[in-house]
Structure formats: C-alpha cells, structure tokens
Specification:
The protein has 7 helices and 4 strands; from the N terminus they run E-H-H-E-E-H-H-H-E-H-H. By secondary structure, the protein is an alpha+beta fold. Strands 2-3-1-4 form a 4-stranded antiparallel β-sheet, sandwiched between helices. A hairpin with a 3-residue loop joins strand 2 and strand 3. The longest helix has 22 residues. It is globular, with a radius of gyration of 17 Å.
Length: 188
C-alpha cells in the first residue's frame, strides 16, 4: 500500500518532484510518450504552474515546478498527471501491439486496485516531492535533473545538454519552444 505523505504547499514555492514507472520498466521509451509529458506540462501551465527544469527518462520523470499560488494539493496535481500519462501509455502500447507487456502490467494490479477498475499498473505508487527552500537547493536539483541522462548507468547522450527530453539545452542556449518552461531566475 502506498504511503501518503501530505505536502504542505506554500504560495511562491518550488518543488522537486519525481515519479517512476512500474517496476522501473522503460515505459516512456517503449510507448514513445515523451510528448505526452509535455502535454501534461501544458495543462500545468494553464493552471499558472511553471516548469523550471525537467528530464523525462525512459522509466521515470524529474521535474521542478514553481507554484505562484496553491490552488490544489500536490497529491491531486501529481495524481492527475500520472493518471493522464498512464492512459496515454496504455493506449500507445495497445496501438503498438505490446500485448505481452500489457499482460505483465495487468499482473501488477492489486486486488484492491482491480476492484476500483484499474486494469494496468503503469507507475509505482506515490511520488517523491521536496520543497526547495534555498537557491542552493534549487540549483543542486536543477544540476541533478540535467545530469541524470549521463549519470550512473545512463548513457543516453554524449553530453548532458544534448539529451532531447530535458531542459538542459534551454539553460545552455536560453531558447525553448515551450511556453510552459521558464528559467529559474524568472521566479526567484
């Protein structure tokens, strides 16, 4: 069962948020749903929530969000995002005829979740969220996000700012095609 940690939400706050695909499976990569994460970010933008930094890895997401005003709980916000992404991932896996993987994901659904109508387990329960209370912490988390694709076991690009599902190149060049992405200096 997921442990529910309440997150105190403050106006004009920045949170580092992470969540992971079920069993660390590379579901974003297998379903090619990276662009759907951007659609979620667009929905956040419509709620006046800004993305400061992000990376979409094959099996997890790290994002830093700025909340000028807190209108909803972090649990609801991330839960809705995960639900939206789960539907998109399952839909894409069906289109790709990934029946073996879909069957595997259905086996991870608990009986309690099954009673609620859930058919596939796409994400691990819960999420990680850290309030960034200092500029040092904000910069530390941005670096962590941007270097993630080339750290440890990952070798997703030759250089961290070349990984295409990350805000690293935005911080390098100052250019982004996404209105929902803002530089941290704009909100601090």
């Amino acid at each position: 069962m997921a442990v529910r940690t309440p997150h105190q939400l403050l106006d004009n706050s920045i949170y580092f948020i992470s969540f992971t695909c079920c069993r660390w499976l590379p579901l974003f990569e297998l379903s090619q749903t990276y662009s759907n994460v951007y659609k979620w970010f667009e929905r956040l933008y419509e709620q006046n929530i800004r993305v400061i930094a992000y990376v979409v890895m094959p099996n997890h997401i790290h994002v830093m969000l700025h909340f000028p005003f807190m209108k909803t709980s972090l649990q609801v916000l991330v839960g809705n995002g995960k639900r939206f992404l789960a539907y998109e991932i399952i839909s894409r896996l069906k289109q790709l005829n990934e029946w073996k993987l879909l069957n595997e994901l259905s086996q991870y659904v608990s009986s309690n979740e099954c009673k609620k109508g859930q058919k596939h387990k796409v994400f691990e329960p819960g999420f990680d969220a850290r309030l960034c209370e200092s500029s040092f912490m904000v910069n530390q988390k941005i670096d962590y996000i941007h270097y993630n694709p080339v750290s440890g076991k990952w070798n997703l690009a030759d250089n961290y700012n070349e990984y295409m599902y990350s805000s690293a190149s935005f911080y390098e060049t100052g250019h982004s095609d996404h209105k929902w992405l803002v530089h941290v200096q704009e909100v601090m």
